[in-house]
């Protein structure tokens, strides 16, 4: 069986010793989770192309270079990474703890999110990826959740999942143990999105877009961290690849 192609936007890395210089990378655990699911993960170069959707979140990106690039693939995985520039969601000031902002990365990720949702390409968004989708659809972020007692860095905690959601179907559970690494979270939910999971402190841990004509779910945690030993977490990647197989059978866009 030919593996469906899963596009994974690369992340910029200032130093990568094995490659001697700055590099474009993706987490090995993330790539391996897609591979275990039967997909062919393909890192794609982040490029801020002309013709990107306007700041209102217009879904009309059919003429953009990014749309043409994604048309070669059967699914998309938006991975974790640094913080979005607060100006992307209308914030007047930047919190001191905002880090690793990259304007090219932001522009590309936002365009990827809008394009995938508009085209119906199967889309799984992880951590920063969830925040990107939320902002792409007009939502906002809390720039910093507070000190160690509030942030979700290097924390494994229970997450309650709403019944009847794609997230429940993918994980096969209504509660999962989630491996988190984030100091930001959703503030205002984007247009059309619904919350599918929350942590005990109320943090939004999952989002979906009812009525979208493709498979899409987003999680604030990092399922790849424990997917090798937790079927519920691996189930997210399995579900993405299953949806991508359907996409492949019907032909790429």
Structure description:
It is a single chain. With 253 residues, the chain is an alpha/beta fold. It contains six helices and 13 strands. It has helices at residues 28-36, 65-70, 103-119, 128-136, 166-171, 231-249, and strands at residues 5-9, 11-13, 23-25, 40-44, 75-78, 123-126, 141-142, 152-161, 175-182, 185-186, 194-199, 204-208, 216-219. The chain has a nine-stranded mixed β-sheet, sandwiched between helices. Helix 3 (103-119) links the parallel strand 5 and strand 6. The longest helix is centred in the last third of the chain and has 19 residues, at 231-249. The radius of gyration is 17 Å and the shape is globular. The two termini are 20 Å apart.
Give the tags.
253 residues; alpha/beta; Rossmann fold; 9-stranded mixed β-sheet; two-stranded antiparallel ribbon; 6 helices; 24% strand; globular; hydrolase; Class_I_gatase-like; gamma-glutamyl-gamma-aminobutyrate hydrolase activity; Gamma-glutamyl-gamma-aminobutyrate hydrolase family protein
Provide a quick synopsis of the model:
By secondary structure, the chain is of the alpha/beta class. It contains six helices and 13 strands.
Topology:
Blueprint: E1 5-9, E2 11-13, E3 23-25, H1 28-36, E4 40-44, H2 65-70, E5 75-78, H3 103-119, E6 123-126, H4 128-136, E7 141-142, E8 152-161, H5 166-171, E9 175-182, E10 185-186, E11 194-199, E12 204-208, E13 216-219, H6 231-249
Parallel strand pairs: 1-4, 1-5, 5-6, 6-13
Antiparallel strand pairs: 2-3, 7-10, 8-9, 8-11, 11-12, 12-13
| Morphology | globular
CATH superfamily: Class I glutamine amidotransferase (GATase) domain
| Distance between the amino and carboxyl termini | 20 Å
Number of strands: 13
Task: Indicate the mean pLDDT.
Answer: 92
Total of DSSP H or I helical runs spanning 4+ residues: 6
Largest sheet: 9 strands, mixed
Sheet with the most strands: spatial strand order: 4-1-5-6-13-12-11-8-9
* Architecture (CATH level 2) name: 3-Layer(aba) Sandwich
Contiguous low-pLDDT stretches (5 residues minimum) are 51-63
Question: Residue share in helices?
Answer: 25-40%
Kindly report the CATH topology: Rossmann fold
How many discrete domains?
Answer: 1
What is the alpha-carbon Rg in Å? 17 Å
Instruction: Return the CATH class.
Output: Alpha Beta
Strand percent estimate: 15-25%
The assigned structural class equals: alpha/beta
**Element order: H for helix, E for strand:** EEEHEHEHEHEEHEEEEEH
